[in-house]
Amino acid sequence: MTRVLHRTIEVQPDLAVSGSGLTLTLGDGRKVLDASGGAAVACLGHGNRRVAEAIGAQAQRLGYVHTGFFTTGPAEALADLLLENEPGGLTHAFFVSSGSEAMESALKLARQYFIERGEPNRTRFIARRQSYHGNTLGALSTGGSHARRVPYEPIMADRFSRVSPCFPFHYRRTGESDGQYVKRLAEELDTEFQRLGPDAVAAFCAETVVGATTGCVAPVPGYFKAVREVCDRYGALLILDEVMCGSGRTGSMHAWEQEGIVPDIQAIGKGLGGGYQPIAGILISGRVIAALASGSGAFVHGHTYQAHPVACAAALEVQRIIREEDLLTNVRNQGVLLERLLRDRFSTHPHVGDIRGRGLFFALEFLENREEKRPFDPALRVHERIKRHGLGAGVGIYPTGGTIDGRAGDHAIIAPPYNSRPQEIETIVDRVEAAVLSMFRELSQSGRRAG
């Protein structure tokens, strides 16, 4: 019996006792390749000695101080490293303990920015359906993750609205070009600004490459340039949530670098500290900081463990390793291999409808009928089945349901560490293939199919 309230009370999760590189050792002795880094978190794998030693040294030196009184060397050094050369005009960092806290901070900062500028009527935020921005109430109010929202909708804020996702596999019209699709989505966003009032919107929020909710959906070319133009037209900020897709996961340090635009506020998280300590944050443009500096001079927000020195020391070492070992190049190279192998194995599979992603951030979407793009009956819980069969095949992948509309659709994310080697990528795909074959064999034998 466990006294921990796990994510489900019905089934107790397996006990993980240790990890080394890609390999997790479970309590019963089984070995599992962690092919998704949990939730695309463990970007250096497990058991990295340099990071562990940096954590221990900092904990011995100084474990905690309150940021209302002090700053620390690790926090200052981490901000300096991340913001070296002020990428895209981002000049300051604010460190917290989770991606949800990062998005809450971004929302509050956007609101305060307009108060400082004398525009207090800007109280609305626009995001997208089939998005995820965190589980705290403000972040959950922003996102469009149906299953997570439903129990809490009566107590959510009502200042958030959503437009269509940029999800071409399911929502681009037949015969519609990239340019036509982008134009339609930009017009929809413009219409939403007009509906709310052009001077009422504080920010538009989006994941640059959508993570868990739809499974590694990258934008079509030109989408974010069009979005940036709409935001600029109405004087709103652009908040990009790169908690899952950023910090190198898609092959560039910032996923927005591949879109030819820059955000006003960027949320970062999972790849920042690689799971060695809980840490996330926001990177902030100089113009937002300038508004605070010329106004109240303070950000009216904070957390007890904000810029925690041990967490910052861990993230600093992770980021140093990424740079010293040129791991972004490896992400790009191994990402090409991962995509090729996935397409070789699954491009003709009758129940794999789409293979998508960037860098070391790919997903398989499972469909009952790929020609009609018809999902499996949600009651079959295909995403839970692939997790179980994955563990049975000795591989951990990250599955989610509700891919298409929050209710129907199943996918699984494959997101290996940035320092993965070709042989490891090949083994991962071998085991994923074994899991997929085993799962659909079970479904076939059970005689169950979509209704």
Protein described:
- The strands form 3 sheets. The chain has a 7-stranded mixed sheet with strand order 4-10-9-8-7-5-6, with helices on both faces. A 4-stranded mixed sheet has the order 1-2-3-13.
- The model has no long low-confidence stretch (mean pLDDT 96).
- It is built from 15 helices and 15 strands.
- The two termini are 37 Å apart.
- The chain has 451 residues and is of the alpha/beta class.
- It is globular.
- Helix 2 (49-61) runs antiparallel to helix 12 (309-324).
- A hairpin with a 2-residue loop joins strand 1 (16-20) and strand 2 (23-26).
- It has helices at 37-40, 49-61, 73-82, 99-116, 137-142, 146-149, 168-171, 178-196, 223-234, 270-273, 286-293, 309-324, 327-346, 382-392, 422-446; strands at residues 16-20, 23-26, 31-34, 90-96, 124-128, 160-163, 201-207, 237-242, 265-268, 280-285, 352-358, 361-366, 395-396, 398-401, 410-414.
